[in-house]
Amino acid sequence: MSQPVQSKQHLNRNLSHKSVMNLCIASGKGGTGKTTIAVNLVLALGERAELMDCDVEEPNAHIFLRPEITHSKAITTPVPEVDFSLCTYCGQCAQICRFNAIAVVAKRVLLFEDLCHSCGGCSLVCPTKAITETTRELGLLESGHRDDIRFLSGRLRIGETMAPPLICAVRQAADPDKITIIDAPPGTSCPVIAAINGADFVVLVTEPTPFGLHDLKLAVEAVRLLGIPCGLVINRADIGNREVYAYAEEERLPILLSIPFERRIAELYSEGKTLVESLPEWQPAFVQLYEDIAALVRQKEALCVK
Amino acid sequence: MREIVIISGKGGTGKTTLTAAFCALAQDAVFCDADVDAADLHLLLQPQIQEQHDFIGGAKAEIQPERCTACGLCQDLCRFKAICASHNAELAVDPLLCEGCGVCVDLCPEKAIDFPPQRCGEWYISNTRFGPMVHARLGIAEENSGKLVHLVRKEAMKLAEQKARQLIITDGPPGIGCPVIAAIGGAALVLTVVEPTLSGKHDMERVLDLAAHFKVPARLIINKYDLNSRMAESIVQAAKGRGVACLGRIPFDRAFTLAMVQGQTLFDYPGAEVRKEELRRIWVEILAALPEDKQRLSLNMYE
């Protein structure tokens, strides 16, 4: 009985080939509309897609998707714990730690848990095995559903500095049979890299202003460093100036979608409402956005095979 | 000397636009751009760079193939999965994944792993038409943004001391993670710029919790409040519930964007007199909200 089902699944996976993919929505500048694009895209695609909120410092996707959260799990990272009955205060742990998370002063060992990067060096070099590991909570991994759409989100603990390992934990929970839409954090440093690394395509959302363009250029550099194809969505397309369009042409970056600045859209957004649900004429635009991206990914695949 | 740090939780609420406007109003201040990931303040303040320095963030592991015996111990020990075997079975470090912990460096039996410090960006001391400025540029995909934030704030403080200036205005990063924590520790006041949206409210609550966690006094400014006045009021109430007062409500005004396109602060831009008057009034309130100058908290977290 299980045999034919399994082979059918295999067949499906082969047939659908690269229609299953990881699609990351990012931007250099914050507040350009990443979450808007991610949520509307997943709503337009329905059950074949899942939404992953990797902006763990300020996760917002749930506000718009309004999923039912069914699971919440603490994600932790290992940190050292010292058994003082075994400690000889030799100081080797402090010597290997590059993050100043452990210090040995006379007959005292000081632990600065918040600075620990969980490399495990101190417990490895401790000659008396006085150091074992306990855990520090990074934040929560929440999961649930909105109708048939699967939803996952990371939520960094207040005061926690290390977002990347939490982002990795969210991404590990991806369903390989679904189109995964990743809502990335703003910027271009390590949390962004953790969110976009390994994606098949990155959508960069920008606005046509000097700030938008300046930060877009940084984001394009980051995506290119990782060798991932990318395209643009231009939000509030009629504010500011035309320089972002000239830049897109120069760099041969496809403009996949433009959203005008309209008071009505801004008001819907402020209430946590989505375009696809409130203005259904947007539904086909987001389906088309996905189709265009899928075509670009197939094109790149074909080039790579050649 | 006192420092005001402008943050927002959510990105794109108008931090840099308002920071630049306050820089134009401030007398006797030093400016600091602590959003090192995507620094934009220079686009409005047009700094003339006086000094340029490398930012050495941390070290990264580098396997020397001629000394490596491919025993694979480093691969087993690395918790960041940064060491991979290439097709000819040579081991190499992926610099994007390397955390710079040095565990492989110290424990390699052949001493085959070097640990060269990395140049992760640049920082600058500049002059602007409103006063001196410290800013930086973090390299693409780099770590250590918290360390660089700490560095620019420290340099801004030194500069303020040198120039006998009493105030530092710092443009902070979005979010609540490492760079924000590095940006607010020891500040006299954090000014939180919020937009009147449900997500803006959610993010404000988290960033105010962060400020409370690090015991930094906070105040609120609502930007573009008239895009949803009802939401704006609910945000003011939510902040009040956390003991944080709102110092001003600024309406949506295209003048801000038009000025930005010209590389100007609102005060360089002709017209928009009503907005300018409001901003002047808010600036007076901000200065009044600054606590008495007291010994700064230690900024030593990253040293």
Short description:
The complex is a heterodimer of chains A (306) and B (303). Helices cover 38% and strands 26% of the residues of chain A.
Strands ordered across the widest β-sheet of chain B: 3-8-9-2-10-1-11-12-13
Question: What count of helical segments of chain A does DSSP give?
Answer: 12
Stated plainly, the CATH topology of the largest domain in chain A is called: Rossmann fold
> How many β-strand stretches of chain B?
13
Percent range for β-strand residues of chain A? 25-35%
Encode the helix/strand succession of chain A as letters.
HEHEHEHEEHEEHEHEHEHEHHH
Mean pLDDT of chain B: 93
CATH superfamily of the largest domain in chain A: P-loop containing nucleotide triphosphate hydrolases
Shape of chain B: elongated
* Biggest pleated-sheet summary of chain A: 9 strands, mixed
Question: What's the CATH topology name of the largest domain in chain B?
Answer: Rossmann fold
Query: What are the segments of chain B in which pLDDT stays under 50 over at least 5 consecutive residues?
Result: 297-303
User: What is the number of beta strands of chain A?
Assistant: 11
Oligomeric status of the shown chains? Answer: heterodimer
Beta-sheet strand percentage of chain B? Answer: 15-25%
- Quickly give the structural class of chain B: alpha/beta
| End-to-end gap of chain B | 21 Å
